[in-house]
Design brief:
Helix content is 52%, strand content 20%. With 138 residues, the chain is α+β, with helices and mostly antiparallel strands. The chain has a five-stranded antiparallel sheet, covered by helices on one side.
Length: 138
């Protein structure tokens, strides 16, 4: 009877060991993917719930702070691990088209206003150029 209990304990320990290694590999792969995608000009979500645009980030040295622009001209320093995830841009026009099917024609001008507002978002290259212009004047 004791042999069965020791055997069961050994099986559980082996299962825990392999499960922990699998989880660690997945976390490491996720961190590496985030580090390669985190480049200046990319929109990110911080752990505090703030959205911002990366200005400077060093994927090699995770102890150095990352510079994140949360509003035009407002740059903050955050710990590099405070970057929760990269915000993937959604296709705003497809969303508006889906909403147009569910609304009446008198709401069409509102949808056009939303499309125009979404099309005025800066590209990463425009953000870098604007930040370079701003830093030259300081």
């Amino acid at each position: 009877m004791e042999i069965v209990l020791f055997g069961l304990l050994a099986v559980l320990l082996v299962f825990m060991f392999f499960n922990t290694r699998k989880r660690q590999k997945a976390q490491k792969a996720e961190q590496e993917e985030k580090a390669t995608k985190t480049v200046p000009g990319v929109k990110v979500l911080l752990q505090g719930g703030l959205y911002g645009t990366i200005v400077a980030y060093d994927p090699e040295d995770l102890d150095s702070p990352a510079l994140v622009e949360i509003a035009p001209g407002t740059i903050i320093e955050v710990h590099s691990q405070a970057i929760l995830r990269i915000v993937e841009p959604k296709d705003a026009i497809d969303e508006i088209d889906e909403n147009d099917e569910n609304t009446e024609n008198d709401d069409a001008t509102d949808a056009d206003d939303v499309v125009e507002a979404n099309l005025n978002v800066e590209t990463p290259e425009e953000t870098r150029a604007r930040l370079d212009r701003d830093s030259d004047g300081k």
